[in-house]
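hiii, so i know i said id send this last week but things got crazy w the move. better late than never?? heres the sequnce for the chain we talked about at the cafe, plus the structure i predicted for it. fair warning i was half asleep when i ran it
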Amino acid sequence: MFGSRSGETRDEAIRVGIAAPTSILASNLHIEGLLTGDGIVRIEGSYAGTIRHEGHLVIAKEAVVKASVGGSDVTVYGELEGDVNVTGKLELMATAKVTGTVKARRLAISEGAILTGECDVARPDPEGDGSAPKRSEGKLSAAL
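okay and structure toks below
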């Protein structure tokens, strides 16, 4: 499941908590529509539509996703085009290419990842007194 074909090593998979996906949309699948659910879902093929997922969504290196994505945590190795609204962490790995409006509570971008669009990252206030800036917003186009 994790090997040179997908660009991820087992160690990377374990690090981001995806050692045992509960559902896989395989590389030979091309799906359009609405995807909802929870747990861990890994997309390896192509998907177009809307994704509302309350678990961990993984977009594999070979995947092409054109969708509005909402959910808890998303890790991208492949291509994602569309609006993304993540209540937890959005992680763009070195092979990721993301185009669209991104909103996330936490954002991690690896060197080599490409993000083009608008970005809004909400940061927690560690003191709880309102003194820390709560948002980091802006338009960007970056290849790290």
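btw The first strand starts at residue 23 and ends at 25. thought thatd interest u
miss u guys!!
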